[in-house]
């Protein structure tokens, strides 16, 4: 028996991104179940997960329920010390936990005015004084961690930690709304949106879930600032180069065209997540 992780819409649920990254980025296996934000109350879609009412929430192998993302980080760190969720150095670890906790409870103006939406990148957003104050604080704590603990590597403590997980949706917001930050902070944002696990999460958001009008902003759009995907599209006909889905190994039923070649997948989700960002998926790129 393994962990079960309940998440919300990948495009919009910033806390679900954190929960998923705690498992995916540190190689901890789990079964993922998607809660539909347009199908009634979230709590009603969490059978057997009492007292959880929101996502993300996780069930441990022995049946305990964890209904808070920071608690999830700490519990996984306790259960999987080899995974390296927190820095090994005590001073760095204390700082990383402080940063994650501040993100967990703070920056309400940024979170309110700039909801996560990984389907678009906007231009023309005018941040309020409260959002600017949040950004200034974010830049200062990022710089503090980087200067003291990141001798090498793009992350806050050099190697990727749970503190980076908690700031991944912040980086997404800065990228989405084209928020002005320092050159060093922008480099940290760029590391997040180029991260393979982040790219896979974003691609899966395009493959499942509807466009939710309540997250729309009356702003101009621009190209996504992350790595440009190879151009691909779903097709109804063609002869695929592969007989089995690169992810499941099951027979091919759905087709995709890319650069004059046809590839097959076992279902629409496998195809569509690949169409969204082919280079994000190593198993697919092995075919290419």
Automatic annotation (TrEMBL):
> What is a GO molecular function of this protein?
glutathione transferase activity
Task: Name the source's superkingdom.
Answer: Bacteria
Domain GST N-terminal intervals: 3-84
Q: Which GO terms describe its biological process?
A: glutathione metabolic process; L-phenylalanine catabolic process
Q: Where is the signal peptide?
A: none
Protein's recorded name: Glutathione S-transferase
> Which organism is the protein's source?
Thetidibacter halocola
Q: What is the lineage of its organism?
A: Bacteria, Pseudomonadati, Pseudomonadota, Alphaproteobacteria, Rhodobacterales
């Amino acid at each position: 028996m393994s962990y079960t992780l309940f998440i919300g819409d990948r495009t919009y649920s910033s806390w679900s991104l954190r929960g998923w990254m705690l498992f995916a980025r540190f190689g901890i296996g789990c079964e993922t179940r998607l809660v539909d934000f347009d199908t009634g109350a979230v709590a009603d879609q969490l059978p057997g997960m009492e007292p959880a009412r929101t996502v993300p929430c996780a069930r441990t192998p022995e049946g305990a329920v964890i209904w808070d993302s920071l608690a999830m980080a700490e519990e996984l760190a306790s259960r999987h010390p080899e995974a390296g969720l927190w820095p090994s150095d005590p001073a760095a670890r204390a700082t990383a936990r402080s940063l994650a906790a501040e993100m967990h409870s703070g920056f309400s103006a940024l979170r309110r005015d700039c909801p996560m939406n990984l389907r678009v990148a906007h231009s023309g957003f005018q941040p309020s004084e409260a959002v600017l104050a949040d950004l200034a604080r974010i830049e200062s704590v990022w710089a503090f961690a980087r200067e003291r603990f990141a001798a090498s590597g793009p992350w806050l403590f050099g190697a990727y930690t749970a503190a980076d997980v908690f700031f991944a949706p912040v980086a997404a917001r800065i990228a989405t709304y084209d928020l002005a930050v320092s050159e060093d902070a922008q480099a940290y944002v760029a590391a997040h949106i180029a991260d393979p696990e982040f790219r896979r999460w974003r691609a899966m958001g395009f493959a499942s879930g509807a466009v939710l009008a309540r997250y729309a902003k009356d702003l101009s759009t621009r190209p996504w600032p992350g790595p440009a995907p190879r151009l691909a599209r779903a097709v109804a006909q063609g002869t695929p180069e592969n007989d089995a889905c690169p992810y499941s190994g099951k027979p091919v039923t759905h087709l995709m065209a890319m650069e004059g070649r046809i590839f097959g997948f076992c279902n629409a989700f496998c195809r569509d997540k690949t169409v969204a960002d082919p280079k994000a998926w190593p198993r697919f790129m092995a075919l290419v």
